[in-house]
Specification:
This protein is α+β, with helices and mostly antiparallel strands and 265 residues long. It has 2 domains: 40-118 and 140-180, no CATH class; 186-264, no CATH class. Helices cover 22% and strands 33% of the residues. The chain has helices at 8-36, 93-103, 169-180, 249-255; strands at residues 40-45, 60-61, 68-69, 77-89, 108-128, 131-151, 186-188, 197-200, 230-235, 241-247, 262-264. The protein has a 6-stranded mixed β-sheet with strand order 1-4-6-5-3-2. A hairpin with a 2-residue loop joins β5 and β6 (131-151). The longest helix is centred in the first third of the chain and has 29 residues, at 8-36.
Length: 265
């Protein structure tokens, strides 16, 4: 019997083909795992007094399933609870929160915080000759915390919730602080000011409670302040410095676009 002789080149080719097959399987598993991930949400009902502050005016985004307010709305409302949404596609977290709120019978939401963060990595690989090269891609996900509200007028339907446990005292305190802390800050548009400075309407400071402004640039963002908000200097209408307070980037951009127009924030 002739001895069986294996060609080294054949072995190399076979190994290469096997590696490619394994790598294809590996990439398929990665893709399947990525597609299996989905947005998560947790709703905590609110129980207690419903004497929430009402503003004279507020920034509101109406392009979503329900209006999204960036501060207290200008009409009486009832807080249904706190919605914590995570693992959303980056940049879609606010819209996803609005969709969930609409499903629960809400009239609007108040945005407390939102943003993106790295939640993991995808390891990818390819075969180069007899070597397997690997590299990682970060997974970026969006998250949002919103107060779900309905207007104070009676409604025929009640909100549906999969969680019947009321908020803890700590959760209630955080939600109340995030909503009650904000006050309407009526500013004038002034394109001549730096982007980190705003100027109030004449006499607007008399309507703002004492201690509302920080006396110096905040060293740390308070828990009730949305993640993307920016501290800015606040000036009286005559230019006198009053202090610092947080504003949404959209607010600051709007106040510096056109001079001499009034905006109630």
């Amino acid at each position: 019997m002739q001895p069986l002789i294996l060609n080294p080149a054949f072995l190399s080719q076979a190994t290469h083909t096997k590696n490619i097959k394994h790598m294809k399987t590996f990439l398929i598993l990665i893709t399947a795992g990525l597609l299996a991930s989905c947005t998560t949400s947790n709703f905590t009902p609110y129980e207690g007094a419903q004497n929430w502050p009402v503003s004279q005016g507020a920034l509101v985004d109406r392009k979503y399933a329900v209006p999204v307010y960036y501060g207290p709305p200008p009409q009486p409302y009832i807080v249904m609870g706190l919605l914590q949404l995570g693992n959303a596609t980056a940049g879609t977290e606010v819209g996803a929160a609005a969709n969930k709120a609409k499903e629960m019978g809400a009239d609007a939401i108040i945005l407390i915080s939102h943003g993106t963060s790295q939640t993991g990595t995808i390891t990818n690989a390819y075969v180069a000759g007899n070597t397997v090269q690997a590299y990682s891609i970060p997974i970026i996900a969006g998250a949002a915390n919103v107060a779900i509200i309905r207007w104070a007028a009676p409604r025929s339907s009640q909100p549906q919730s999969s969680r019947t446990v009321p908020m803890s005292p700590e959760e209630q305190a955080r939600l109340q602080a995030s909503v009650k802390q904000w006050q309407p800050t009526a500013c004038v548009k002034d394109a001549n000011l730096p982007m980190d400075t705003v100027r109030l309407e004449p006499g607007a400071e008399s309507k703002i409670r004492p201690g509302y402004f920080f006396t110096s640039p905040p060293a740390k963002r308070p828990d009730y302040v949305p993640i993307l908000y920016i501290p800015a200097k606040v000036l009286r209408n005559d230019g006198k410095f009053l202090g610092w307070q947080y504003f949404a980037p959209a607010q600051l951009k709007y106040l510096h676009e056109q001079p001499n127009a009034v905006s109630g924030l």
